[in-house]
Amino acid sequence: MKRKISVTLDDEKIQQLEIFLKEGKFRNKSHALEYGLQELLKGDGK
Q1: Residue-level pLDDT at 10
Q2: Could you tell me if residue 22 is inside a domain?
Q3: Which domain holds residue 40?
Q4: pLDDT score, position 45
Q5: Over the chain, what HEC string results?
Q6: Does 3 fall in a domain?
Q7: CB 11 within 8 A of CB 18
């Protein structure tokens, strides 16, 4: 089950996120953030 959350990011990170979306690297902002968190958790070994 997926749930909505609220996230606060600085302008520079939002601009980079928008670039990733325009380049087609992710379907939407949620996809990008979910991917990033998944990679962080994978690298942490937890």
Answers
A1: 98
A2: yes
A3: 12-44
A4: 57
A5: CCCCCCCCCCHHHHHHHHHHHHCCCCCCHHHHHHHHHHHHHHHHCC
A6: no
A7: no
In a domain, 28, yes or no: yes
Whole-prediction pTM: 0.80
CA 34 to chain centre: 5
Nearest to 20 by CA among 32, 37, 8: 32
User: Does 39 fall in a domain?
Assistant: yes
Largest distance between two CA atoms of the chain: 32
Mean pLDDT of each 10-residue bin along the chain, 46 residues long:
96 98 97 95 75
Task: Decide: 32 and 20 in contact? Cβ < 8 Å.
Answer: yes
